[in-house]
User: Which sequence fits this backbone?
């Protein structure tokens, strides 16, 4: 195992080579907000919340997909980053139809957590109030596109852990939405094994178990990394 | 097939030529103005007037002066006819025997032509793009011969590096450095990609190069493949360019026939094959990582760099991606040497650049000019200025670029100078605007384009461009306040700094550059007071 030494927020750190800045920061207890990152699946660098400043690079880089390097000097919480993160969360809230007060994930929502973490209490942008639908065709689960932030965790979890690839993204730009199967109703997709991993992976209340009501959704997000660990290392306890 | 074989083909081709050669443009633009009928009537008239043995009527690619098409040129007399209609064909033929042609005569000594320096386009409008023999007669594939027989891959990379050529797709990354990186990557398998997914509004340079001289690009690709050690290449062309695709397919087939593509090219140990991949209409697929995803059969979404494609590209193998025009520069660099090439242009921008000159301008069309020429020379001398008006600004770089105001028209055209004034070289779109153009409306137009073309993967680009578009629309409706303007500026900064790929990073540029030079136009559109009445309702700003 080779080791790299670097500085995060001025703190000297030694870490295993090949790890991402996000992994190392987590180990050291340095908070970096994330939304599309999920332990156990591939990172895509899409939510831009984990962007960090690295000395000598004039571009901001996502901590989740940037490997640590020898002598790297990383800043994770500069005023500039704070401002951008706040705006990112504001954009997310303005983009969908997020009504916390009657959402299944209220109090257990990563978008809410992110808003609190970056200190966002209102959005300066006009709400888009998009016309999005719901799909209740699955016997056990449902997807409410109004609450979707397009993090694609469900897509990755279904593809990489369950191996079913029920989910994907349709359309582009603001019109993007998560599709099941070949853009069919979820209940008609034969590939779906009803394993519920997408429910656990979803950071908001977009994918949920039918019958759950306001603030009742408790996503078991650790289950996914437990599964990976169990499969790879044959350790079946948690 | 070897060097002698090529010379024999060229010789035979030249011997076949008749006394007159009439070039009739059959590129997309002129075809739309019924140039195919012109060509048909020219052939018919030549037959009727008994001149079939004296005249070759050749369908050629773009001659550049697209605004005045269809264009017909007679060689060796160098007589150009503009806006030729099918019934004027007969007159053109009879002019060969001393008759009078009724078609409007063009002036090849006009600065539009005389100030150009065609390198990539040297054969465009002269060579028949559908016949490889004609290309060979123009000296085609000699550079590939030289590369394969007389040079090592390292020597070619060094030659390209020395030439100072920079990527013509927009970014301006040094081509030689990119080649050297791919060449040095370990591993047996490497790929080569030609990016022909040109999508900037008002830009049609790459289309024209592919339609007019497809073999030039293929030859450039083969040389590049030999230099970096790739055996398989792809040309990614957008589906909106059917003629370019057709001609490329034909060209690849012909090149295979003459053993200029395939195994043991020109009897050397070098193998190279090219496949065409057709884009499905997404602007973002011009971004290299999205393009790679698209070739792999996935959704055309960009992925974070690093790793760069040179390191980990198509199917995770090292991949060289260059633009159509970049590849078009390779054969002459190899043939005439880097010293010749680096003698053209400015200190940090070498060679020439093709621009699509459009908008409110007298002479519309394609021009290839040496780097360092000023915008004023292009717009006023070559372009002939704005018809009945004055230039207000010139937009370069498409949705990633910016608007350069009239008082900065003396800026030389090179990568660094354009960046300094808040625009960019881009792929080569150049849109001229007159005094009647609203710069806010222009910014809104480009923002509309970006929000429509955003892939939706990262939030700043997906939602940020929508919000910017909404703010610009609000402004144009005179409903915005100073606070909205400030919000817009902050958002521009954020979208630029946090987006995942080049599309998002540069999407705010048209707004930022128009704000920089035409701020008064934005401020004029602001609400006069802190609140205002809209449709009878009081809005507090």
Assistant:
């Amino acid at each position: 195992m080779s080791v790299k030494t670097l500085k995060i927020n001025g703190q000297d750190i030694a870490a295993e080579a090949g790890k991402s800045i996000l992994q190392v920061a987590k180990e050291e207890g340095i908070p970096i907000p994330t939304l599309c990152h999920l332990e156990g699946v591939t990172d895509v660098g899409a939510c831009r919340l984990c962007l960090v400043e690295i000395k000598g690079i004039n571009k901001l880089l996502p901590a989740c997909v940037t490997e640590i390097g020898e002598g790297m000097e990383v800043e994770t919480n500069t005023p500039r980053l704070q401002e951008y993160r706040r705006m990112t969360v504001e954009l997310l809230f303005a983009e969908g139809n997020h009504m916390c007060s009657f959402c299944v994930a209220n109090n257990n929502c990563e978008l809410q957590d992110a808003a609190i973490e970056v200190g966002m209490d209102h959005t300066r942008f006009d709400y888009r109030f998009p016309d999005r639908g719901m799909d209740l065709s699955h016997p056990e689960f449902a997807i409410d596109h109004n609450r979707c932030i397009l993090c694609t965790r469900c897509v990755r979890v279904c593809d990489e852990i369950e191996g079913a690839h029920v989910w994907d993204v349709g359309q582009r730009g603001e019109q993007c939405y998560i599709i099941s199967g070949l853009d069919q109703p979820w209940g008609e997709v034969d590939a779906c094994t009803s394993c519920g991993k997408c429910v656990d992976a979803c950071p908001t209340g977009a994918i949920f178990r039918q019958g759950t009501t306001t603030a009742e959704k408790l996503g078991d997000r650790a289950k996914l990394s437990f599964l990976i660990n169990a499969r790879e290392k044959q350790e079946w306890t948690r | 097939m070897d060097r002698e074989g090529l010379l024999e083909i060229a010789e035979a081709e030249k011997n076949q030529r008749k006394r007159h050669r009439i070039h009739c443009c059959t590129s997309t633009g002129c075809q739309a103005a019924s140039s195919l009928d012109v060509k048909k009537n020219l052939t018919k008239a030549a037959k009727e007037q008994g001149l079939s043995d004296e005249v070759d009527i050749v369908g050629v690619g773009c001659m550049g002066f697209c605004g005045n098409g269809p264009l017909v040129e007679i060689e060796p007399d160098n007589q150009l006819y503009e806006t030729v209609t099918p019934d004027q064909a007969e007159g053109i033929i009879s002019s060969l025997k001393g008759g009078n042609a009724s078609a409007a005569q063009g002036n090849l000594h006009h600065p539009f032509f005389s100030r150009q320096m065609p390198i990539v386009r040297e054969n465009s409008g002269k060579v028949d793009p559908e016949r490889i023999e004609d290309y060979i007669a123009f000296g085609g594939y000699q550079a590939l011969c030289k590369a394969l027989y007389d040079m090592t891959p390292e020597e070619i990379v060094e030659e390209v590096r020395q030439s100072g050529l920079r990527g013509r797709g927009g970014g301006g990354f040094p081509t030689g450095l990119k080649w050297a990186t791919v060449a040095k990557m370990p591993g047996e398998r490497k790929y080569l990609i030609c990016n022909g997914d040109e999508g900037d509004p008002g830009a049609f340079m790459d289309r024209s190069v592919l339609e007019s001289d497809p073999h030039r690009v293929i030859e450039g690709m083969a040389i590049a493949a030999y230099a970096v050690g790739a055996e398989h290449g792809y040309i990614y062309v957008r589906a909106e360019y059917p003629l370019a695709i057709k001609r490329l397919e034909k060209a690849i087939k012909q090149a295979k026939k003459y053993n200029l593509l395939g195994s043991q090219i020109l009897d050397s140990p070098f193998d190279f094959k090219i496949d065409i991949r057709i884009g499905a209409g997404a602007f973002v697929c011009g971004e290299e990582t999205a393009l790679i995803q698209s070739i792999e059969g996935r959704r055309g979404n960009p992925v974070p760099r690093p790793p760069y494609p040179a390191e980990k590209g198509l199917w995770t193998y090292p991949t060289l991606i260059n633009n159509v025009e970049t590849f078009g520069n390779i054969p002459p660099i190899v043939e005439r040497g880097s010293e010749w090439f680096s003698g053209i242009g400015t200190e940090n921008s070498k060679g020439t650049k093709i621009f699509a000159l459009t908008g409110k301008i007298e002479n519309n069309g394609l021009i290839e000019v040496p780097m360092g020429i000023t915008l004023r020379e292009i717009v006023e001398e070559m372009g002939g200025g704005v018809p009945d008006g004055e230039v207000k600004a010139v937009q370069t770089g498409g949705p990633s670029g910016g608007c350069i105001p009239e008082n900065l028209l003396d800026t030389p055209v090179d990568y660094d100078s354009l960046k300094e004034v808040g625009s960019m070289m881009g792929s080569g779109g150049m849109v001229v605007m007159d005094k009647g153009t609203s710069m806010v409306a222009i910014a809104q137009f480009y923002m509309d384009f970006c929000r429509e073309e955003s892939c939706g993967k990262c939030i700043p680009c997906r939602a940020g461009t929508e919000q910017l578009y909404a703010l610009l629309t609000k402004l144009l409706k005179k409903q915005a306040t100073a606070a909205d303007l400030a919000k817009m500026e902050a958002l521009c900064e954020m979208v630029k700094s946090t987006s995942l790929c080049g599309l998002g990073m540069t999407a705010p540029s048209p707004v930022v550059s128009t704000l920089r030079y035409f701020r008064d136009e934005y401020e004029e559109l602001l609400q006069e007071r802190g609140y205002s009445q809209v449709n009878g309702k009081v809005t507090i700003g």
Remarks:
- Chain B has four domains: 17-114, 140-342, 352-434, 439-524.
- The longest helix of chain B spans residues 459-476.
